[in-house]
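Q: Could you write out the predicted structure for this multi-component system? I'm mainly interested in how the pieces pack against one another.
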Amino acid sequence: GAVVSQHPSWVICKSGTSVKIECRSLDFQATTMFWYRQFPKQSLMLMATSNEGSKATYEQGVEKDKFLINHASLTLSTLTVTSAHPEDSSFYICSATLNEGTQYFGPGTRLLVL
Amino acid sequence: AQRVTQPEKLLSVFKGAPVELKCNYSYSGSPELFWYVQYSRQRLQLLLRHISRESIKGFTADLNKGETSFHLKKPFAQEEDSAMYYCALSGVGGYNKLIFGAGTRLAVHP
């Protein structure tokens, strides 16, 4: 149980376009979902916390207009990278949490902006 | 400030040797500590959490509030233990946010 999926697993896009990444909890209803960014050989950095039906809470230094988060249901959250630039190229990981607080992670989405 | 420190980027041992992955934290409240593991080309997965006090795959970790540490230990390393290990701290702010350490790569050689 407690499986989290992400789609797509990788995406290549042109600079200036927008990219949407989906995060789904497959077998449980997630009260909260989190979005992380991971640069090569570095740790995960929390970008934002997403709760169903409310606005996401962004970490300091993360542009909310650049990284749009929508949490439409208890099983789906989306991250849209708007007007992507090469510096946005990274590995984006989501996680979903059950009530007891354990976070279950998705497989990640690799974004390459040309 | 809340912080998780993993001082070693790489820990290299031989099969059968004891392993200790160090983790220190800085947090003024009551922390909840976790160890996550990421095997090659796989997603991050929970290894253990301090409140459960269980042993997973032979790994144990004890929360030492006096030393603000949560070191991960295994008496006899196996090759399949080779992976990236992240220590994480929860209880910061609401919604069980996690703060991760930089990670330690464990390489177990035959």
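A: Regarding packing and overall arrangement: DSSP finds no helices and eleven strands in chain A.
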